């Protein structure tokens, strides 16, 4: 099997500012107080993914999952280390990312598809199917700025799944959609798996990770804490003890 993603000794540092205005910063600095602090959102992370593997990327809020996905997608660069990927990458890593709020849903489909490397002709060919999948109905010609967060996620996911990608990144795709849409997304993710495409699936739901993934990577405060089997990863996180009724967990079980 060929390697699809190779992450080697990757670190990413962010700066956290304690003050919002220049004046506040100047006052704090004159008193000798700290005005900002840098911290490692990712700290020397290394792993390899074989083509066709489905990775469940898990960890507590703020552990660095989205940051790692952004590095894999290439929209952000590591401060040190390397990220190498093979093939076309698509996915939804942030609700509404890449959408222009003053353009309509239809216009944003073309914009977003172009960002993923789809030609205008390819987008036109797939347009009806994308609109149908998004299921935003008559709102397709409304400004995206007026969409609910769920509608924005539906549109973003609809475009992403229509890209012929080798690697699919899904960050919290099931967090904002309603139940019928989440079921549709899970079916699509199953198709992506069957087609032998590589999947990176970020989720807090043990049920859906079990359903979709064959390997789990756990981040803990930016450090790779666990890399191995799905059940072992979920046990490592103690996510089996949770009461997930009414959330993605129950969805993972009932579809
Ligand atoms: N652009 C940025 N500038 C400064 N800090 C950032 C930036 N992006 C992320 N962070 C910080 O980096 C840390 C990791 O964030 P990240 O979004 O990767 O976590 P996550 O594991 O995806 O969290 P969640 O489960 O809540 O989605 C957090 O402390 C976050 O506040």
TrEMBL record:
This is ABC transporter ATP-binding protein. The lineage of its organism: Bacteria, Bacillati, Actinomycetota, Actinomycetes, Propionibacteriales. Pfam families: ABC_tran. PANTHER family: TEICHOIC ACIDS EXPORT ATP-BINDING PROTEIN TAGH. Keywords: ATP-binding, Nucleotide-binding, Transport. PROSITE patterns: ABC_TRANSPORTER_2 (PS50893). Residues 5-246 form the ABC transporter domain. GO terms for molecular function: ABC-type transporter activity; ATP binding; ATP hydrolysis activity. Belongs to the ABC transporter superfamily. InterPro entries: AAA+_ATPase, ABC_transporter-like_ATP-bd, ABC_transpr_TagH-like, Bact_Polysacc_Export_ATP-bd, P-loop_NTPase. GO terms for cellular component: membrane. It comes from the Bacteria.
